[in-house]
Design brief:
With 470 residues, the chain is mainly beta. 9% of the residues lie in helices and 43% in strands. The chain is built from seven helices and 31 strands. The strands form six sheets. Strands 1, 14, 16, 18, 19, 21 and 22 form a seven-stranded mixed beta sheet that branches. Strand 30 (442-452) and strand 31 (459-467) form a beta hairpin. It is elongated, with a radius of gyration of 43 Å.
Length: 470
C-alpha cells in the first residue's frame, strides 16, 4: 500500500466470513466497524472490511486512516503502522468502506487497530479486531518412505514357533531349521527398505493431510491521474485492475463517478454512460494478469474564481463491484483545478457612474410635525449596477412615522437598513423614502450610505433639517 496525499487504496476481501462489531465510544464523531475472520492459520491471506460512519451531524473533511497491527500480521507495503494514502471526506450520516489485506505469519492472538485522525491530528474514532491464528497444517512427506519397514513385519514373526520349550530336546532338527531361516527373513526387510514407494500402501490419514485448499483470486484497484490542472484543461484517469492471487477471478464491473467541475469527453471502448457515471463489464482476470480502463474529462473552475484565488479540489472515484455480497474495492484520485481568469479591476462608485442624492421635503418643520427624507440612486454609467445596499442614519432621539415610512426596512436604534437594491440598468434610478420627527425640536442631521460588493468605496450624502420648538 503506497502512502499518498490525495488518494486511498483498498484491497479485496476473499475470506471475510465472520463479523466483529468494533467497540466505539459514543462520543466519537466517526463510528468505526471492522468485518473479518476470527480464526485463521499461519500462511493464510486474510482480509478485513472497515466501515466509517459520520455520526457527528456535520461534514468531516481530511480524515486520515492509520492501521496499527501486531507482528503476527504481515503487509506487503511496510511494518506497522500503515497510513492509507489520501484523506477521506464524509458528509453527515454517510459511510465509507475500505478493505485491508494481511498475511498471517505467527500463531497466537494477533490484533490490528484502525484509528481515524482529523486534519489537526485529533483522534475522532477507532476500532480493534483480533484473530486467533493457529499453526499451519504440516504436510506428511517425511514418513512416506520410512513407513514400509513398519507396515510389513510378517517375515520377522515366522520363527516364533521355535520358542516352545518341550520339543527342543526330542526333535533337534525342527529347532535348527527355523534358526537357519532367520537370515532369509532379514533379506526381504532389506529389499523392502530399498524398494520404490509406489507398491507400499500409505496410511489413510497421511493421504488426507496432503490435500491443499483451492486457489483464490486477489484483486487490486489503482486509479491514477494528474494532481493539478488548469481550468478548461483535459485530465486523463486510468484505472488498473490486477489479480495478485493464485486463482482466476470471476467477471466484475468497474464504475467511474466524478464531482462537479468535471465533464466527460472520452472513455475506453465498451463503456456505458448514465448521468455522471461511466461503467464497464470486465471479463475474468487470470493470476498475474491485469486490465486497464481510461476516461478523459474536461476540468472547469467554478464561476467567480480567478487566477489569484485558491484552486478548487475535485475528485473522481473508481469502484470495482460484482465481487459477491457487499464486498467492493474502491480508489479515489483528486485534482486541484486552478482558474486562469484574471480578477477584474474593482471600480469606484464614481467610475461606475453611480450617483445619490438625499433631501428633505419639509424644512423647517413645525412643532409636532415630521419630515420625509427622499434618497434617490441613479445609474449614470454604461453597465448595470450590481446589487446595492442602502443605509440611513437618523439623528439621535428621532422617531419614525410608521404610517408614512417604508415597510421593508430593518431598524437598529438610529440605523435604518433597506432591503438589498436589485441591479439598476444604465440611465435608471430608484427612490427611497423615510419619515421621522424630533419631539424636542432642534436641528436634525441625517446621513445616507450607499455601498456594493462589486465597488471599491461608498457614496455618502447628508441632509440637515430644522425642527421648531413649541
Amino acid at each position: 500500500m503506497v502512502v499518498c496525499s490525495i488518494r486511498s487504496r483498498s484491497f479485496v476481501a476473499v475470506a471475510a466470513v465472520l463479523v466483529c462489531a468494533a467497540a466505539a465510544r459514543a462520543e466519537d464523531p466517526v463510528l468505526v466497524s471492522i468485518t473479518g475472520p476470527l480464526v485463521g492459520r499461519v500462511g493464510e491471506r486474510t482480509s478485513f472490511e472497515v466501515e466509517l460512519v459520520n455520526r457527528s451531524g456535520k461534514p468531516l473533511q481530511g480524515l486520515r486512516v492509520i492501521d496499527y497491527f501486531d507482528k503476527g500480521f504481515h503487509h506487503e507495503a511496510s511494518t506497522s503502522p500503515i497510513e492509507q494514502k489520501g484523506t477521506i471526506d464524509l458528509m453527515p450520516g454517510t459511510a465509507r468502506r475500505l478493505t485491508l489485506d494481511f498475511l498471517l505469519d505467527e500463531p497466537g492472538r494477533q490484533c490490528h487497530r484502525v484509528e481515524i485522525l482529523d486534519p489537526a491530528h485529533v483522534f475522532v474514532g477507532g476500532a480493534t479486531h483480533c484473530v486467533e491464528v493457529q499453526p499451519a497444517v504440516a504436510a506428511a512427506t517425511a514418513p512416506r518412505y520410512a513407513a514400509p519397514p513398519v507396515v510389513a513385519p510378517p517375515p520377522v514373526a515366522t520363527p516364533a514357533p521355535v520358542a516352545v520349550p518341550a520339543p527342543v530336546a526330542a526333535v533337534p532338527p525342527l529347532a535348527a531349521a527355523p534358526l537357519a531361516a532367520a537370515p532369509l527373513a532379514a533379506a526381504p526387510l532389506a529389499a523392502a527398505t530399498l524398494a520404490p514407494p509406489t507398491p507400499v500402501p500409505l496410511p489413510r490419514a497421511t493421504a488426507t493431510t496432503s490435500v491443499t485448499l483451492p486457489a483464490t483470486p486477489a484483486l487490486e484497484l489503482d486509479l491514477t491521474g494528474p494532481a493539478e490542472v488548469l481550468s478548461d484543461g483535459v485530465v486523463e484517469y486510468v484505472a488498473t485492475v490486477k489479480n495478485k492471487g493464485a486463482g482466476a477471478s470471476a467477471p466484475t464491473s468497474l464504475e467511474f463517478s466524478w464531482d462537479d467541475h468535471m465533464t466527460p469527453l472520452e472513455a475506453s471502448d465498451g463503456y456505458n454512460l448514465v448521468a455522471s457515471k461511466v461503467s464497464w463489464n470486465l471479463p475474468a482476470i487470470e493470476p498475474g494478469g491485469q486490465l486497464k480502463r481510461q476516461i478523459n474529462l474536461r476540468a472547469k473552475a467554478p464561476a467567480g474564481t480567478y487566477s489569484d484565488t485558491p484552486a478548487t479540489r475535485s475528485c473522481i472515484r473508481a469502484v470495482l463491484g460484482g465481487l459477491g455480497g457487499t464486498v467492493m474495492i474502491a480508489d479515489e484520485a483528486c485534482a486541484l483545478i486552478s482558474s486562469t481568469a484574471p480578477r477584474p479591476r474593482i471600480r469606484t462608485p464614481s467610475e461606475a457612474g453611480l450617483k445619490m442624492s438625499l433631501a428633505d421635503l419639509d424644512d423647517p418643520v413645525r412643532p409636532g410635525d415630521a419630515t420625509t427624507l427622499v434618497c434617490t440612486v441613479t445609474n449614470a454609467g454604461t453597465e448595470p449596477t450590481g446589487r446595492l445596499d442602502l443605509i440611513l442614519i437618523l439623528p439621535d432621539q428621532a422617531r419614525l412615522d410608521s404610517d408614512r415610512s417604508a415597510s421593508r426596512v430593518r431598524i437598529d436604534d438610529a440605523r435604518v437598513s433597506f432591503d438589498p437594491i436589485q441591479p439598476i440598468p444604465p440611465g435608471g434610478q430608484r427612490s427611497f423614502e423615510i419619515t421621522y420627527k424630533l419631539p424636542a425640536g432642534g436641528t436634525g442631521r441625517a446621513s445616507a450610505i450607499l455601498s456594493s460588493a462589486d465597488l471599491d468605496g461608498t457614496v455618502e450624502r447628508t441632509c440637515q433639517t430644522s425642527f421648531l420648538e413649541r
